[in-house]
Amino acid sequence: MLHKFPVGSKEQNDLLILPQGAICIDGNESLRIHNGIQSGGGVIELEVAVPPPAPAFKGEVHVGDLINGTDLAALVGLTAGTIIDNTDNEPWLHFVDPVDNKTKYIAKKPYRRSISWDDINAVDCVYGKTITIGDNQYICRLIKGGKTEPFTGLVGHDTEGTWGSEWNRLLYPICAPTGNPDYDNIQDPSSPGLGTWAQYDQTNDLGLMPGIGARSLCQNFHKSSRIYRGSVGVTNSSTITPHSSIQATGWRPLLELIETTISTVGQRDWLVPGTYIWTVPEGIYSINCLVVGSGARGYWLDSHNRRGGAGGQVRWQNNISVTPGQEITITVADVVSSVTSSNSSLGTSGRNSSSILELSSSSQKDGIDIFGGDGANGTQGNTTNAAQGGSSGRLTTDGSSTPNMGIILTTGEISDSGLGVGGGVNTSSSNITAQAGNAGGVRIIWGPNRAYPDLNIHDMY
Description:
Elements: E1 2-7, E2 22-24, E3 32-34, E4 37-39, E5 42-48, E6 57-61, H1 69-76, E7 82-83, E8 92-96, E9 103-107, E10 112-113, H2 117-121, E11 129-133, E12 136-141, E13 156-157, H3 166-171, H4 181-184, E14 215-222, E15 225-230, E16 236-240, E17 249-251, E18 254-257, E19 266-270, E20 274-279, E21 286-292, E22 299-302, E23 305-307, E24 314-321, E25 327-332, E26 355-356, E27 364-365, E28 368-369, E29 371-373, E30 380-381, E31 406-407, E32 414-415, E33 441-446
Parallel strand pairs: 14-17
Antiparallel strand pairs: 1-5, 2-5, 3-4, 6-8, 7-10, 8-9, 9-18, 10-17, 11-12, 12-18, 13-16, 14-15, 15-16, 19-33, 20-25, 21-24, 21-33, 22-23, 23-30, 24-29, 25-26, 27-28, 31-32
């Protein structure tokens, strides 16, 4: 940091106090610094040495001081997949995340291979399962490989959809460059760059290059697929079906330390169809809820009359009273399977509502208005133009005629990979296929100055 100071006699500059660590860089040997007071003549530049912020990476933690891969799998009930040889006792990488200031431990190498996203979700370790190790509690989950949920944009090396993600901000700075410019060219503006905190080899140290378990499964989903990171370098992102358990898929768990202090700000998402029980955290007495129904599948009457399914409904309600420890049932709407026969009723409105505390597709509960809108109808199609699914409802108004657009639960934005999009119908004249709509979702946020539709609905800590 450079500072310019006009300099006169010592008497004129008795009040000129130089910053600590200031270095004279103009090369004028006649200038002198006496107890932080510069004397001399002319104008000089002083460079102030500002110490860089402490890196978020705190080093390695031996499994003996935390837990190894086999014991962790047993603790969470994960039996799917196979232990990767010689990785079970690999240490944990210790971080203090600069975004949420939480202590996180990431497995240095994947612990299990030939495992699917569905396998991990079956034991609640995709979005988080609370476990106890020693005297501490942790959330065992997958890393967030994309910035938003659902993942938006393209996949590939350092694509914009990954910028600012947990993966990028924690793992980029500890990886030494590979020497391949396609892998090493970092554009993420939030990243300090490769190898700024440590210089781990991406192949031998971290298992991020092609090999067994190198595809680290992440939380995020992209339409009907799931995101994984690595396999061809730390910057890579790609997709895989949720049930796929090939040898290259790996379980690289993240353990997030639960601090003993009570946080009164937070959020939780449910994005996979099913029924869940959520326990209200300590200190929380009011929540704000958003639900998104699944999109309807498309339908066809004949080769010239096809219509995309309508988008799912979106509803929200604020200031719902709860008590700490209360158990709340949450249902995430499933998709309707693809069909190859006509059924006109399936293309007219969004099907399968998500729900929480009776908040679903209805417009009132106990006489209290529930806000939100219906999804848009799908477009008409034929053998030339495919019928496109309707958009989900908006956070501000009813759905519009915009096809193939759904809501991103974490931001409220509308995207072609969002929730609740209706299914489309292809243009084939002999093999007509009506696609299923996208699934729904539920999001809860809590804390002061937060409310739907648009008041601090993003992740906050």
